[in-house]
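Regression check, NAP case 244:
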Amino acid sequence: MNIALVGYGKMGKEVEQVALERGWTARVRLTSQSDFPSSQVIRGIDVVVHFARAADVERHVAEWAKAGKPLVIGTTGWGSSMDTVRKLIEQAGTGLVYSSNFSLGMHIFQRIVKHAGALINRFEDYDIGIQETHHKEKADSPSGTALTLGNLLLNQIARKSELLTGTPQGAVKPAQLQISSARTGNVVGTHSVLFDSAADAIELTHRAKNRRGFALGALLAAEWIHHRTGFYSFEEVMAQLLDI
Ligand SMILES: NC(=O)c1ccc[n+]([C@@H]2O[C@H](COP(=O)([O-])OP(=O)(O)OC[C@H]3O[C@@H](n4cnc5c(N)ncnc54)[C@H](OP(=O)(O)O)[C@@H]3O)[C@@H](O)[C@H]2O)c1
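Current build output:
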């Protein structure tokens, strides 16, 4: 497999490292200073792996989809462009897999949280909250993963209907589920879901130890989308791979 790396920062470099270990080649490494590659270079690319900046996702997808290349989008914070990006992929007849968190452990965690949410829905005594911590360079807040967890819990818990992000102004309303974010030091990514009652507390935590897990999942997605067309979340890909 020959991949193009759009974004050659912390994640782009990690993806390259894991790709090389598999005998794959990173033909292109683009940063904010790079020009779009020539058509001759593009011809040799199998899949584009994007870990760059949210503001450029729409433009980059348009360029690469026009060139007929499938994409894996790991960049976070572009949720408002989702419909446009889906249309670009469908019109070009190519493929795309996206996720705010490509870690396989996080995928397992989300399934556990979904199940926990279904249980907590039956027990009104418990309030629900999400906390996330990342390194201080992270651009978006709350994390895309925290929003995914929040929406997953809203779908499971009837008494919660709204995510509250940022600092609450006054009391948190009963229907609100608060996501609190911290940006500290070099933390790769920690997400906790808290179920709190007057009698006890249940805490579920996923803690990324390094960036390798994200890179492994992104390359799994790259291999999967290589010969497919269509617009998929990583959750859909995993459901097909695991057949559940
Ligand atoms: N989905 C996941 O599993 C997952 C995991 C970790 C991180 N992320 C997300 O991935 C993204 C990147 O994270 P990171 O930690 O690798 O960030 P980073 O270290 O800051 O690297 C960002 C890279 O993107 C490049 N870039 C910026 N604008 C660009 C443009 N117009 N064209 C091409 N490249 C451009 C930067 O180039 P310059 O150096 O020239 O600015 C840099 O190489 C973020 O959105 C982050 O939230 C996702």
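Comparison notes: The pocket of NAP is lined by residues 6-12, 30-34, 51-54, 56, 74-77, 99-102, 138, 214 (CB under 6 Å). Residues 65 and 91 are 9 Å apart (CA to CA). No diff flagged against the previous build.
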